[in-house]
Amino acid sequence: MTASPRSAGQRGAALVITLMVTAIVTALGGALLLVTMVESAVEANHQQTHAVRQAAEAGLACGIAGLAVTEDWSSALQGLPVPGPPCLEPAAFPPSFPGGGDIEPAALTAALQAMTSARYGTVPDTPRWELWIAGAAPGAAASGPVVLVWIADDEGEDDGDPAVDANGVLWVRAEAFGRGSARTAVEALVRRNPPEEGATAVIGWRLTR
């Protein structure tokens, strides 16, 4: 028995509808998968950013603690190693970025100095950064953020020598590097206090990246 044209048309319409529904469901499934992947990536990036900022703040605290037990801050500006027990986990030097690739401390120091000179000019009292500490934040995983800590004389002096501290005030900068492009730096202006007031005091603080 031959199907009527009407029956054939109905079957054709049903097939088209089925294909359309299948395509819509497939598209919705793909969109849902994409949203899930994006949300996972955003969450991972948020966690990495948080970890890097925590590492930078730990490095800043480490630098300030190092100054607190350093009698001669001018010697520190001239490359004296940090005294006392290390407050960052040991790391190979030069350290490596988490996930691969070498960190180049000399290049980072040069870039930091160029940025500082652009801000303050090239006058004799422009802060000159000295890399002081490198390591990983305490408790960080082997692939966790790497931290570099610099110190510099403050720009408020007028002695004309950025390698000599004449007023008991220094900048401390800690920069942490995580996976991918995760990177955060914090700076503090630190003052040496009289013994009865505690070793140091933070008189200024800023998040720079």
Can you walk me through this structure?
The protein is α+β, with helices and mostly antiparallel strands. The chain has one domain. Helix content is 41%, strand content 20%. It contains 3 helices and 5 strands; from the N terminus they run αααβββββ. It has helices at residues 5-68, 73-77, 105-120; strands at residues 130-136, 146-153, 169-177, 183-192, 200-207. A 5-stranded antiparallel beta sheet has the order 1-2-3-4-5. 29% of the residues are buried. The model has no long low-confidence stretch (mean pLDDT 79).
The largest sheet, given as strand count, sense and whether it forms a barrel, is: 5 strands, antiparallel
Strand content: 15-25%
Number of structural units classed as domains: 1
The mean pLDDT is 79
Order of helices and strands: HHHEEEEE
Overall geometric form:
elongated
Treating each run of at least 4 consecutive H or I residues as one helix, how many helices?
A: 3
Unreliable spans are none
What's the β-strand tally? 5
The separation of the N and C termini measures 79 Å
* Sheet with most strands: strand arrangement: 1-2-3-4-5
Structural class assignment: alpha+beta
State Rg.
Answer: 29 Å
Share of helix, binned: 40-55%
